[in-house]
Structures are given as structure tokens and as C-alpha cells.
Write a structure and sequence with these properties.
The protein is an alpha/beta fold. It is about 20% helix and about 15% strand. It has a 6-stranded mixed β-sheet with strand order 1-4-3-5-2-6, with helices on one face. The chain has a 4-stranded mixed β-sheet with strand order 11-10-7-12. Strand 10 and strand 11 form a beta hairpin. The structure holds zinc ion (ZN).
Length: about 325
């Protein structure tokens, strides 16, 4: 797998706590509260500064539906912000609401004089091939028993991290302290009791931990840089000043004729631009992009004035020596 250097996915139109990057579908009403509303609506508002990556660690590869079913089965069951399962990688909870996946031991909170990690972290769940099949827990999926995987899950996690780091401003690097700011795996580099209350937990497993730090984070930085770079395509070029608007020099070349630039130009009309006193030859292709008027033929100034690039046209017929430049 080589994530860095792959094509940059299209930049999302907006970056919001409810939105998601390309390849991930917001499904913010899939998890329901006991009152029938979307589950997140009853959750405390948070301001996350660490994103934490998990693995499902189910006995078999979980699907998008099994992830939702598990979340809805009991109030305390895992309800992550993101769930990267097939066939639909999902955002389930807005990232400005407290999810259920990351939790700090009470005694550690007191010792550290810190609140529970769920109040300042994002939870990203991801499917694996199932702990029954792989005791080491599989890497991020590139194939799934629940259908095609159009975007490898490691790439989706990189997009999610880039997206949320733009929304919230956290760095795409491991936090220096467990309660700092950045991106971590559930038990690495800070094991129990920082983000889990289960002693001995190894989530998301050695393969995903290596992939997260060695491949996903560099890719996430690459995507974020591209998405935050000044947009060249949407800024119109500045209007030229009056002295930069070219005059067109249209020359009637009665027969093939050598000009003083050393070239022989064919019979017919030849176009130069005069900008700041400099003559620049406009080739047939460039001319054709300016106007539907054929370059050969005799035109009146009124016809030439339909070419919007020029303020005025100067025409003449070549009979003797034409000085160019
Ligand atoms: Zn976990």
C-alpha cells in the first residue's frame, strides 16, 4: 500500500462538525436515542483536540448495518463519530458531540486532574477481518466480505483525519501528552488507562498502529496541505491594466515573405500582438482560440473588433521590408 503520492481527493465544499470527506457518508440519524430523536442530539457539546483510531475487534468483519445495530442495541454500547465499515463508510455522530468509544479510568482522571477523554476526543472505528480469523487483528481493509471497497480504508482514515484537523485545528501527529492534542491509536502511544478502561486492551492492534503512524498520518498531512492551499482555479486573474491590453497587428502578407525575425511567413493574414512596444507573434492555434474568424481572408476593422482580447487593430499590407521586434 502506498498512500502518499496518490491523487488528492476532491476538496470538500465545507468543513463542519457534521460533514465528511469524499468516500464517507454522513448518517447522523442512524443511531437513535430512547426518545426517538437522533442519538447525538442528547449528547453534550464538546471541542475535540485528539482523534483516536480503533478497530472493531469483532469475531467476524462487521458491516455498516451491524455497527449501527450494535450501537442501538444498548445505551452504553460503542457509538463512534466515524465507522469505517462496508458497504457504507459512515459518519454517525457530529464531532462537536460526545461519542462513546474513548474513556479514561476515573482514578487516572483524578490523578491527572483531567476530564474523561470522551469530552475532548474524536472516535474513528474501523472494520477488520475479525479476531477469529486473525489473532493479531487485521490491517485496515482493502477487501471486504460486504462488497467492493472503492477506497481503501487506510486512505479513508487519512481523509477523515485531514478533514477533522481542518475543522478543529489539531496537528496530524501523535500528542506529546495523553491529554495533549493530535492523533493517537486507542492504546498507542498511551495505553490503558488514558483512553480505555479495559486493562490489557491492544486496540487497534499492531498492524493498524504501524499503518496509522507510518502511512496514514503522512498521507493525511499531504491531503490537508492540498485542501488548505490557496485555490488557483477559483481566483480569477487580475484584470490587465490598460497598458497591458495588447494591440493587434494584422498584416496582409501578399505572398510568402521573410520578415526581419528571420522567419518566412506564408501568404495570408499574420497576427502579432503589440504589448509595451514589444511585438509577439500569435500562432495559428492561439489565434484560433481567440476567435472563430479564420486567419486567412480579408477583414474589416469592424469584424476584427469582435475579437475581445484587443482594444484596437492595426492593419496593413506587406510589400517591402517589415521590421519585427
Ligand atoms: Zn478501541
Amino acid at each position: 500500500m502506498d498512500l502518499v503520492g496518490a491523487p488528492i481527493p476532491p476538496k470538500p465544499a465545507t468543513f463542519t462538525p457534521e460533514g465528511a470527506p469524499p468516500g464517507v457518508t454522513p448518517m447522523l440519524t442512524a443511531l437513535r436515542g430512547t426518545d426517538g430523536r437522533a442519538w447525538w442530539e442528547s449528547r453534550p457539546i464538546i471541542r475535540p483536540r485528539v482523534a483516536i483510531v480503533h478497530t472493531n475487534a469483532a469475531e467476524q468483519e462487521g458491516s455498516s448495518q451491524s455497527q449501527i445495530n450494535w450501537g442501538n442495541a444498548a445505551p452504553a454500547n460503542t457509538k463512534p463519530h466515524y465507522a469505517i465499515n462496508q458497504p457504507t463508510p459512515m459518519k454517525l455522530v457530529p464531532t462537536n458531540r460526545r461519542a462513546i468509544a474513548n474513556s479514561t479510568e476515573d482514578w487516572y482522571e483524578k490523578e491527572e486532574d483531567q476530564t474523561d477523554a470522551s469530552f475532548w476526543t474524536i472516535a474513528i472505528e474501523s472494520a477488520d477481518s475479525g479476531t477469529k480469523n486473525d489473532p493479531q487483528v487485521s490491517d485496515f481493509l482493502t477487501v471486504s466480505k460486504h462488497g467492493p471497497v472503492p477506497v481503501p480504508h487506510a486512505e479513508l482514515v487519512a481523509r477523515i483525519l485531514a478533514y477533522e484537523s481542518i475543522v478543529w485545528g489539531f496537528p496530524l501527529a501523535p500528542p506529546a501528552e495523553w491529554d495533549g492534542t493530535g492523533v493517537a491509536a486507542h492504546t498507542h502511544p498511551f495505553p490503558h488507562p488514558a483512553y480505555t478502561i479495559q486493562e490489557g486492551k491492544t486496540c487497534p492492534g499492531p498492524k493498524k498502529i504501524r499503518t496509522l503512524f507510518d502511512e496514514i498520518l503522512p498521507r493525511a498531512r499531504e491531503i490537508r496541505q492540498a485542501w488548505t492551499a490557496p485555490d488557483q482555479t477559483q481566483t480569477p486573474p487580475p484584470a490587465p491594466t490598460i497598458s497591458e491590453v495588447p494591440d493587434m497587428i494584422l498584416v496582409r502578407n501578399a505572398e510568402p515573405h521573410q520578415f526581419t525575425d528571420g522567419k518566412t511567413y506564408p501568404a495570408g493574414n499574420i497576427v502579432w500582438e503589440l504589448v509595451h512596444g514589444e511585438l509577439r507573434h500569435v500562432g495559428p492555434d492561439e489565434y484560433a482560440a481567440l476567435t472563430t474568424l479564420p486567419i486567412t481572408g480579408a477583414y474589416t476593422n469592424a469584424q476584427l473588433a469582435r475579437i475581445p482580447r484587443y482594444t484596437k487593430q492595426l492593419t496593413g499590407t506587406v510589400t517591402g521590408t517589415v521590421k519585427v521586434g
